[in-house]
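Question: Send over one sample?
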Amino acid sequence: MANIYEELKERGFVAQVSDENAVRKMLGEKPATFYIGFDNTATSLHAGSLVPIMAMVHLRLAGHRAIAVVGGGTTMVGDPSGKTEMRQMLDEETIRSYGRAIHAQLDRYLKFDGVGALAVDNAEWLLPLSYVQFLREIGRHFSVNRMLAAEAYKLRLEKGLSFIEFNYQLLQAYDYLVLFRKYGCTLQMGGDDQWGNILAGVDLIRRVESATAEALTFPLLASASGAKMGKTAQGAVWLDGSLYSPYEFFQYWVNCDDRDVGRFLRLYTLLPLEEINRLEGLRDKEINEAKRLLAFEATRLTHGEEAAREARAAAAAAFGIAGEKDIAFVPTTRISRSRLQAGIAPAELFTEVGLTSSRGEAKRLIKQGGLYLNDERIESPERLISDKDVTGDGLLLKAGKKKIHRLVSD
């Protein structure tokens, strides 16, 4: 088995590791079992979760066993890591519903077969716990002073840390102990804000089982412009196609900063490093080739081959790229003919479909020459959009060179 650890490092997945030599050996000698936890805080994961997901995919393809922990138990408490305020408390049925959706999403990437990859819900062992017994058997191994020194808690102490959140580290550490006992799991991975929580599990296994386990964290990423990964001005880049369409997902990657292309290709695709090095060397307009390949590969992994091809064809049609053309897959909204007959101000319509965040922004873009109707620049905010503008493809609204929306009338 080839040692996948060095490739993970070269691709940019490694931020901190408990014992680099031990992890390198673990991932190079024989199949190892590792896990990452995903709490059920929404109906979908978003693009910010793709770094841990892609790390799991790489390790699974290298022959290691992946365990995805869907956090039906830990979500009942709420992870304070990276949060300035307490998370919203969700009821048990909502958490179970979110967990089913997240399980299905992770299955698309990891192909749960119960052998090379499996999903478990920590509600199975956390919810039946006896509190006093848990404190006696597990809580006694934790130092409050050490817990308070962790970054996750220091940030929250400034604004107030609830007692229920203070327990989160104990529960995550206990997860690791359970998975070590049940599956022989010896590596936990997660975002760099989870470092203290993961090390707590490593220490718990050492104290209770007199055994060695390891920790590895991923960098917390932002784009070159400083934007948080998985977030846009319009909201989260969801992995659920009904919340964020495959076309929008494709465009999210196409529109990335030139400076991010190589880094994103390493993290968010399975392309060979040799090919990525070539693409990273492209300059000026040629870099768009690399962006389109990044977008296609990321969309293919998340939404499937067919959806990726459709998104690529829609982008080609919308932006005049030679090759495949199919305007049908551009994000589309229906609008009544009666509204169009009356005429609609561009600022109102562009904001309504989400191409601009406000009417004020739309008006500023018109003055700057940045809004288009059917590929013609809108010269004035007073110019009304009406049924006379409808073409065979409907109405094509563009904000700048990268954002497009299609309207069809009744």
Observations:
- The domain at 245-324 is CATH 1.10.240.10 (Tyrosyl-Transfer RNA Synthetase).
- Residues 321-325 have pLDDT under 50 and may be disordered.
